[in-house]
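thread: overnight batch results

M.L. [08:02]
morning all. the overnight job finished for the chain we discussed friday. pasting input first so we're all looking at the same thing
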Amino acid sequence: MDIQAGMENEPLNLRIDAGVATLTIDTPARRNALTYAMWLEVAALFQVLEADPTVRVVVLRGAGGDFSAGADISEFDTLRGAPDSARTYEAANSAAFAAVRLARIPVIAAIRGICFGGGFGLAAAADLRIATLDATFSVPAARLGLAYPLDAMVDIVGSLGEQMAKYLTFTAARLDAASAKSAGFLLEVIETEHFDARVDEIARTIAANAPLSIKASKASMRATATGDKRDIAFAQQIGDATFASADYAEGRTAFKERRQPVFSGR
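M.L. [08:03]
and the structure it wrote out:
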């Protein structure tokens, strides 16, 4: 299944294959910078993915040699030039970050090259982050005189740790892949020639496992992080549901029969 969304020359491409959805930011001439329309489309496409029962994991990546340079700065004067319009733009950013963060299915950020600004925010909202050796990270808000959305900062602190988050946001410094891994932001740093294969291996491993179990794990971890009563209740509900599922029965049967389980998501 191939879907192309967005405006001309500003596409977001979505491909779904065997339970793995790959959402590619495809404006390589601008280092995959995202326009206002594209931020809105990211949120809309994640709604499509959430509604598709065949999708078990999402890989978020950029076309060409970069992940994303963040927001398209050419729109700043027109769409972020006044306080009201800047807040409207920020709401679109927040909606995209929330779509990634709150997705019930796992999201993997596959990062090559530049991962700056809003691109960094998208990666920080993902569940797993894997990068090439040449990946570079930056949160340049202090050089632009603007603030990041509060929810994006929660993601950044959660994925980097408080001190490194402060360092990046206060200095607008660039972080290399090795330092980002040391800070805990990255799961793995992979040589470029092996990168796609490793991302695919992790995504397909997740897709082959029990989706209800994975959703329950993700919900429980979110509830642990937020402490919100609604998140806790939802995590309990979805966790309890796994015990009555066909997948639980399949997992037990496959274990007894010493074969690989085939999970249906029911």
